[in-house]
Specification:
About 45% of the residues lie in helices and about 0% in strands. The protein has about 80 residues and is mainly α.
Length: about 80
């Protein structure tokens, strides 16, 4: 009885690695984050230094809310900073 020929086996090739996702933030991210925190701080400082007349006198104590809101947005952005 004739003997069958063996098949040539292919050399093992490991599966290709998937491309790494881009890690990091856009160029504008850090300057905007810092600008919001500094702007909020300056807003509150100006409010107190000018005896509550500036930045917007008609808002009264809401100027504090605006200043703290700007700072909170900036600090919130720090959680996304890579």
């Amino acid at each position: 009885m004739p003997e069958s020929k063996g098949r040539a086996k292919r050399a093992y090739t490991p599966p290709s690695k998937p491309a790494k996702p881009k890690v990091g933030n856009p160029v504008w991210f850090v300057p905007v984050m810092l600008a919001l925190m500094i702007l909020g701080l300056l807003w509150i400082v100006v409010f107190y230094i000018t005896s509550q007349q500036y930045p917007i006198e008609s808002l009264g104590r809401w100027n504090l809310g605006i200043g703290f809101g700007l700072m909170l947005i900036g600090f919130g952005m720090t959680t996304r900073w890579r």
